[in-house]
Backbone:
């Protein structure tokens, strides 16, 4: 999954969301996972992406357990939605840009 460069990043990500996830939630991993999913969706012109936990861990350089914890935070904060077609399917993640409403 390669991205075309340059990657367009909304200022809100660096100016607000980074501080919020790292400072308030004390989870730099949540920001890395969100940013990775953001790059695979909005920055790539897609609404959602399918990616396994192992792929997401490899992509971010985090352990699978750190990615799982980050995904829980992001779901709780309603920054992402994960959909499973079946119990064993690869999740399809939709990234929410709550600031763009």
Residues:
């Amino acid at each position: 999954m390669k991205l075309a460069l340059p990657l367009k990043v909304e200022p809100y990500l660096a100016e607000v969301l980074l501080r919020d996830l790292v400072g308030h939630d004390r989870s730099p991993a949540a920001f890395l996972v969100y940013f990775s999913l953001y790059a695979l969706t909005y920055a790539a012109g897609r609404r959602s992406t399918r990616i396994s936990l192992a792929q997401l861990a490899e992509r971010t350089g985090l352990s699978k357990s750190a990615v799982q914890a980050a995904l829980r935070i992001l779901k709780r904060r309603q920054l992402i939605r994960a959909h499973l077609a079946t119990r064993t399917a690869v999740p399809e993640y939709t990234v929410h840009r709550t600031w763009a409403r």
Summary: The mean pLDDT is 87. Residues 74 and 80 are 6 Å apart (CA to CA). The beta strands are 48-50, 80-83, 92-95. DSSP finds four helices and three strands in the chain.
